[in-house]
Amino acid sequence: MASSSYTCIHDGATENDRLLSSVANYGSPRPNALVACEAPHKQEEEEEEEEALRRKLKYFFMSPCDKYHAKGRKPFKLGLQLLKIIIVTVQLVLFGLSNQMVVTFKEENTATFKHLFLEGYEDGAEQAVHTQDEMYSRVHFAVEQYMALPQISLGQYAYVLGVGVKGSALSLCQRYYRRGTIDPVNDTFDIDSHVDTECIGLNPLTPSLAPANTDYKNFTLQFFKLINVTIDFQLKAINIQTIINNEIPDCYTFAITVVMDNRAHSGKVKISLQNRASIQECKGPNVSRHADSYAREFLDVLVAFVCLLSLLLCGRSILRGIVLQREYVQFFTHGLGRSVSWGERMEFINGWYILLIVSDMFTIIGSFIKIGIESKNLSSYDMCGILLGTSTLLVWVGVIRYLSFFQKYNILIVTLRAAFPNVIRFCCCAAAIYMGYCFCGWIVLGPHHTKFRSLSTVSECLFSLINGDDMFVTFHEMEKSGTLVWIFSQVYLYTFISLFIYMVLSLFIALITGAYDTIMAQTQETVRVSHLHEFIAECTDTPSSGKFRGPEGSSCSFLCCCNW
Question: How many Å apart are CA 331 and CA 326, to the nearest integer?
Fold first, then answer.
């Protein structure tokens, strides 16, 4: 038969090959036999493409040590992360020591100002007055202490001139309602809610100024409509203890405000002192036998550079994962006609890399703020501390990723991953009950108990009760309230403690324990894997087979050859 005379002719054959072949109907459409001859070649190419994709996916999900054995490339990113952990921790410790001196200096100066400008001040005691004479006495005392500060203070303080009313150094102000008439006898009042402010300015006795005036003694307070009295002034000081750490001393400006609060009009005027410190570069510092040290600045620059390099490498890994994800989805969708779930798609996006990128961004920003602080151009200690502290936390949490490559160390992260969805749902339900107790305790017990005066303190008190703290003190203070409130408080506290300690906490622990037991049981059984990992498992090439590496080889690395 004619069909038996057909032979396989490749598309690349020459014209002579076609003429000499036994194929009939030259120039006519290609018969089915020729198409069938090309099918094995096409199928072979598809199998090679599929095997190459499997090998890519298997290499992508390997641990750093397996990747080293597969291609012989040094684990540069792993080494970079280990280096980053060390230098970021050292940077944080150095900043913490420096910040501790700043905080201590501020707190000690605030305590000094309270003893200097608040008459009869005692640590931990509430400052208040109850008579008009006491009010005037406290005002006069604060002003007179300010005037005589150079003669009575142990610290070296300097006045800041021109910051008060009409270019003065100190401002004495009272704020009161424009019109206020209160008649408790007839239960009547007439108040204009508009607030007026009356101020006088005072200057200390200095060689450059006229003698200090005594206008403050003629300052009449409008007690019947008074809101508050404030005394505002600024002082300068220098923190020389930073020389111990080989740092240039800081120059401080303290903005001090003495507040006598009469908003409640309850016959009790509360007195407080507020101190806001700002740091600036000292002019012309001169410290004998002090060598300039650029080691801290070098460390900050090194940390920022390492974190920038880490950020770029992690970003590149995420980008590679997205590209490989698209290739995998396209192969399954068009090649096999199967859909890919979002769970399998998200396996290509490594959450640890996102955590490291966030940590690197915080560290870079915090390092530049720290450089500005050390050069005395910035004073954002709190912002720098938040950024560096959070970044160090995330860096150390990221260590779990590398421990998870070893089965013996992987139990924590696997248990957390398995228990997390149930824990979140459980916490949402418990939070609803917790918030109900917070609002109820605030509105009912707030007027009778200091720990329930605000929603934040209520939440802190209840959270302490859950952990077994301050139970007796909380119950004991409730005895001072009325009978009805006391009965309600007993029911409130007993039901809350019983519900959250004996039920909520027990169930919470049971969720974690259940997840742990499930993980341990799965180690004894066959674990169900996703289609992605089933597809990868068909690749039987081991990392040391040599099929993953290029023509060049590599020597063994001690770090990756260790068996943990």
Answer: 8
What does the pLDDT read at residue 407?
66
Q: How far apart are CA 122 and CA 28, in angstroms?
A: 111
Tokens of 386: 């938040």
d(CA 112, CA 98): 21
How far is the CA of 482 from the CAs of 105, 307, 454, 462, 487, in angstroms?
A: 45, 61, 20, 22, 9
Around Cβ 36, how many Cβ atoms within 10 Å? Answer: 11
516: left (phi over 0), alpha (psi -120 to 50) or beta: alpha
> 225 with 180: CB under 8 angstroms?
yes
Task: Look up residue 162 and give its two tokens.
Answer: 């021109």
Q: pLDDT digits over 297-322, tens only?
A: 889 999 999 999 999 988 988 888 88
DSSP class of residue 404 equals T
**pLDDT, tens digit, 9 for 90 and up, residues 12-44:** 444 445 444 444 444 445 555 545 555 566 666
pLDDT tens column, 174-220: 999 888 777 778 777 777 788 889 999 988 875 554 445 667 788 88
**Angle between helix 411-445 and 455-466 (nearest 10):** 130
Contact 516, 415 (CB under 8 A): yes
DSSP one-letter string for 407-432: GGG-HHHHHHHHHHHHHHHHHHHHHH
Buried b (16+ CB within 10 A) or exposed e, 61-91: bbbbbbbbbbbbeebebbebbeebeebbeeb
**453: Cβ–Cβ under 8 A, 6 or more apart, which residues?**
446
Q: Kindly tell me the sign of the dihedral angle through the C-alpha atoms of 49, 50, 56, 59.
A: negative
Rounded Cα distance between 27 and 312, Å, is 58
Chain-centre distance for alpha carbon 226: 43
pLDDT value, residue 31? 54
Give the DSSP letter of residue 333: I
Q: SS3 of 125, please? A: coil
- Strand-strand pairing, 158-159 and 128-129: unpaired
Residue closest to 257 by CA, chosen among 272, 270, 268: 272
Beta carbons within 10 angstroms of residue 174's beta carbon: 23
How far, in Å, are 68, 71, 79 from residue 544 at the CA level?
A: 9, 8, 21
